[in-house]
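Most newcomers find our protein records easier to grasp once they have seen one. Each record describes a single protein and holds just a pair of labelled lines. A learned vocabulary of local backbone shapes supplies the integers on the structure line. Nothing more is needed to start thinking about how sequence determines fold. The record below serves as our worked example for the rest of this section.
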Amino acid sequence: MRILHFADAHIDIASQRRRDPESGLPIRVLDFLKALDAIVKTAIDEKVDLVLFAGDAYKDRTPVPTYQREWGRRIMRLSQAGIQTLLLVGNHDLPPASGRANALQEFDTLEVPHVKVLAKPAFLSPVDLEGLPLQIIALPWISRSGMLATLAANGETAVNVLEELENRITRVVEQWLEKADPSIPIVLTAHGMVQGAELGSERTISLGSDLTFPGSLVKDPRIAYSALGHIHKYQDLNKGSQPPVIYPGSIERVDFGEVQDEKGFVIATIEPGKPTVVERRILSGRRFIDRYIKLDTAEDIPVKIEHAMPSEKEITDSIFRLTMEYPRSLEPMIDEPGIRQAAETALEFHLVRKVRMEARSRVGDGVGIGSLPPDEQLDIYWRASKVNADDRQSLNELARSIIASADGMADVQTP
């Protein structure tokens, strides 16, 4: 049995940029739709038994009709090909208020053949899967606020809501595993964070306030394959062991935090009594180029900039970011119009300036505070504030992680 597993399509995540004159759609949205087309074509051409989408069709929880139409066209192709398709509801697919429909609800409402939306935790048997010899444990996005509402409705309270939520999910999954037919493969699919996962671009300020699945839940040996969604970086959390626990990653690069990530989907081959085999497929997405220049003196500035620039062939149709770090005194020597002209064939060009300003305050030997790296400036501040040594070390480590995350996330766009 072959299962095509993908997640985090986010087809409308880049909807405010240059538009295609023929379709009227943003060019970057077309990039995401092209990736989705490749996934659908693979499923049909290779006659997979099941397509499993692990959540987040959109970025917006209330997508505009145009994007719903484009997503629907692709899913309908799978339906018309007779391929069973499971759509797990992710956090970006949930409505902003209780009682409202999720962003994938129309497939259930219209009873689209071979397509099933999984909006609540569920156990699916072969009967639920049109006779497919498979059992599915589905865990869509489960929010802390949803758990609070459930507790309130039942007249219950909990000291630690997330701990209570984890305990309940673990119990129900264990019950489903016990009642499952051991002769039929079990696939667990979930949208959320799993302990030990490496964060990609899907960093959120609410990290720590949402449910994190324990690793033991998705690595249970009774499971043949764990199909995850939510993190944009491809990874196998049980590498070299069974079952494979796979985040396939997003289908197209979202921002420069993903510049080094290859994007794609996976096909899992499941056979009773044998190890599950996972084949990763890479999609050819839009090229991202990220370059950095640090200038300390006025010597050979044009040459240094020229060496940092990609070739014209590389720049053409790419998304290109050039980050320049320099002291304020060198700003008049930087030919910004010339840089922009050299990058004019890029689909998007982002010039990010990191200007080092000389501070009036001086430290010890006369070195300007403004010329010091951020971590050294912080250390000076902690000392001046009489923070003890142990706390200074912890604070500096936290600051370094925040600065590293900020550098890797969405870039600063200049006019």
Confidence is low (pLDDT under 50) at residues 204-208, 359-363, 409-415.
